[in-house]
C-alpha cells in the first residue's frame, strides 16, 4: 500500500467522482483509477460501488476511509517532524488558549515570535482548562496556556509566567461605581454573572467567597467575556473578571474596581506534556516564551 493510494482513495471518497477527484489532485484520471483498482486488489475487497459516473463507498469502504484518514494524518505528521528536525524554523505549533486570556496574551507573544521565526505556522484552539489539558495529554495540542497554572504531575510540566489580579465590574449606575477598591464582603447581597462551573475562574471566585463565609448568588453564566460585560452593563448583576482582559476593554456602561482580597488573583503560564518529546519548533516556542515573560517581569 502506497501513500498516494491513500490520498487518491480519500479524495475519490470525498467527491464521489473519479474525474472530479483527478482534477482536484492534478493527476490524470487513468492514474487515479489505476491506483484505486490496485488498492482494492491488494486489500482483496471492493471499496466502491460504481454507479454510472459516480463512486459510492461500500460499507467496508466507509470503515476503511475512517482508518485511512487517521493513517494519512499520522504519516503527514511523521513527515513534518522529520522536516522540522532538518529545519526547526518551518514547523507548525498547535497552541491551546483559555477563553479568558486569548485576546490579551496571544497577539503580543505571537507577533514577537514571528519576527524571529516567520515561517513557523500555528493552529489555535480555545477551551476550558480541563479541555485544554486533555487535548494536550492526548496529543491534539503541542502546548497550552492555562490560568491558573496546575501543579506538576506524571503527565504535564508547568511553567508559571506571572500572577494577575481579578477585578470587580459593576454597572455604571451601581452603588459602588465610584469606589476605588472594595472587599468581597461588601458584595454579599449582590447578584453575580460569572463564567460556567467548568472554568477554574468560577471556582476561584466561589471558593474564596465561601472561605470568607459568603454565599454568592449567581444568576447568569457565560463563556464569553463580552456577553458577561454586556449583561453587567444592562444592570442585571455584577461580575469578577481577570484584570488582563478588562485592560482597555471596559464597556462604557460598566466600571472596573480593584478588589482588596489578596486571594482573588490567578497564575498564568503554559503546560507541556511529559508523554512525548517536544519537536524542535515546539522547543523553540517554549524557550521563547520563557525568555519573553522573564523580560516582562
TrEMBL record:
Residues 1-58 form the HTH lysR-type domain. GO terms for cellular component: cytosol. InterPro entries: HTH-type_LysR_regulators, LysR_HTH_N, LysR_subst-bd, WH-like_DNA-bd_sf, WH_DNA-bd_sf. Keywords: DNA-binding, Transcription, Transcription regulation. Pfam families: HTH_1, LysR_substrate. It comes from the Bacteria. One of its GO terms (molecular function) is DNA-binding transcription factor activity. Belongs to the LysR transcriptional regulatory family. This is Putative transcription activator of glutamate synthase operon GltC.
Amino acid at each position: 500500500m502506497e501513500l498516494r493510494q491513500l490520498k487518491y482513495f480519500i479524495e475519490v471518497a470525498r467527491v464521489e467522482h473519479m474525474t472530479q477527484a483527478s482534477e482536484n489532485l492534478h493527476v490524470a484520471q487513468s492514474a487515479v483509477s489505476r491506483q484505486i483498482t490496485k488498492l482494492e486488489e491488494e486489500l482483496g475487497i471492493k471499496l466502491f460501488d460504481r454507479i454510472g459516473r459516480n463512486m459510492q463507498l461500500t460499507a467496508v469502504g466507509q470503515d476503511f476511509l475512517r482508518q485511512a484518514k487517521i493513517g494519512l494524518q499520522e504519516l503527514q505528521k511523521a513527515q513534518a517532524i522529520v522536516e522540522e528536525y532538518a529545519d526547526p524554523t518551518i514547523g507548525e505549533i498547535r497552541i491551546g488558549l483559555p477563553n479568558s486570556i486569548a485576546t490579551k496574551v496571544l497577539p503580543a507573544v505571537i507577533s514577537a515570535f514571528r519576527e524571529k521565526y516567520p515561517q513557523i505556522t500555528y493552529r489555535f484552539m480555545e477551551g476550558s482548562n480541563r479541555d485544554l489539558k486533555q487535548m494536550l495529554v492526548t496529543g491534539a495540542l503541542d502546548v497550552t496556556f492555562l490560568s491558573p497554572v496546575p501543579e506538576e504531575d506524571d503527565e504535564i510540566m508547568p511553567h508559571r509566567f506571572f500572577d494577575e489580579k481579578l477585578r470587580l465590574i459593576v454597572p455604571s449606575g451601581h452603588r459602588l461605581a465610584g469606589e476605588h477598591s472594595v472587599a468581597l464582603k461588601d458584595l454579599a447581597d449582590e447578584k453575580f454573572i460569572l463564567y460556567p462551573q467548568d472554568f477554574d475562574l468560577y471556582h476561584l471566585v466561589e471558593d474564596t467567597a465561601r472561605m470568607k463565609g459568603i454565599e454568592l448568588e449567581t444568576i447568569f453564566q457565560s463563556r464569553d467575556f463580552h456577553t458577561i460585560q454586556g449583561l453587567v452593563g444592562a444592570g442585571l448583576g455584577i461580575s469578577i473578571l481577570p484584570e488582563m482582559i478588562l485592560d482597555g476593554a471596559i464597556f462604557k456602561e460598566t466600571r472596573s474596581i480593584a478588589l482588596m482580597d489578596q486571594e482573588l488573583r490567578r497564575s498564568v503560564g503554559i503546560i507541556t506534556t511529559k508523554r512525548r518529546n517536544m519537536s524542535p519548533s515546539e522547543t523553540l516556542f517554549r524557550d521563547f516564551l520563557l525568555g519573553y515573560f522573564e523580560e516582562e517581569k
